[in-house]
Every structure is written in C-alpha cells, then in structure tokens.
Amino acid sequence: MDRLYTPWRFSYVTGTGKDDGCVFCRVLDEADDEQNMVLHRGAHWVVMLNRYPYNNGHLLLVLGRHVPLLSACSPEEIAEMGRLLAVMEQALGECMNPHGFNCGYNGGASAGAGIPEHLHLHLLPRWSGDTNFMTTVGETRILPQTLEQVRDLLGPAVRRLVGEGA
Ligand SMILES: [Zn+2]
User: Fold this and answer.
1) How many Å lie between the centroid of ligand 1 and the Cα of residue 163?
2) What is the set of domains in the chain, with CATH numbers?
3) Is the pTM of this model over 0.85?
4) What are 62-75's pLDDT values in tens digits?
5) Annotation marks residue 66 as catalytic
C-alpha cells in the first residue's frame, strides 16, 4: 500500500507549540514512521509501539501536540482517542490472543509518566503468567518477538480496522 505522507501540522494548527527535546514531538515531526514504530496517524493521535515495552504489543496512543493532560484535549481529540483505543484493543486481540488488557494514562511525573509533558496513553495486552520471575526479580523482560516483528504484525491490523486499508 502506498501512503501519502502528510506533514504533521498540529503545532502550527493549534498554536500550542512543540518541544525539540521531546521524543514524541520528534516522532510526530519525522517522516520515517516505520523506523519510529508508528502504526497509524489519525487526525489528532498517533498509534505507535512503545520502544521500552512492558510486554509484546505494548502500544502507545500519543497526542499530536505537546500538552500534558487529558483536560487540555478538545472534544474531537477525546472522541478520536476513544475510537483509536478500541481499534488498538481489537487489533491486539486479533493478532496476539491476549487474555486481557491494561489501559492507562499517567498524568504528571509524580504519577509515573516517563514523558509527563506530552500526553500519551498505554494499552497493553496481558497473558496469564506474564508477570514472571524474571520480571519481578531481575527487572529484565523476556520478549520473544522483536519490535519490528510486532510492528509488522499489528500495523496492518490497526490500519485495516481504522479504515485505512492494509
Ligand atoms: Zn512533545
């Protein structure tokens, strides 16, 4: 499938600006979605893989502008957030057969956000027994698939479910 790259214009449209030091702003600006593990660009959000996954299939939904909190979002942004979270859940369900899901948002550094200034939500698949010995003791996770494999598995499903074709 050929995809037309649309320059990312959120910061100009909204006037909220962006932060050159922010890893999410950089991903939004860059054209290389494959390299950056971006699965889909919506009107207001980007669906991407977490580079430091808790589990295989750990997805992020990243707002297209540099604001920290859900309460800063427009009604349109909130509406698309819900639609995309449902698509992400469905894609993970189809491709990875998880036993359950965690979905969360860390608002602010003291709530545990790694990048507190730029709003993003986590959606990750869970399997019975995935919290194992290595995780608990060694802080090392054994991930049987590479990020690239997970990207190539989930990307087409997300784009199909969102109506973009695969
Ligand atoms: Zn940012």
Assistant:
1) 27
2) 10-161 (3.30.428.10)
3) no
4) 999 999 999 999 99
5) no
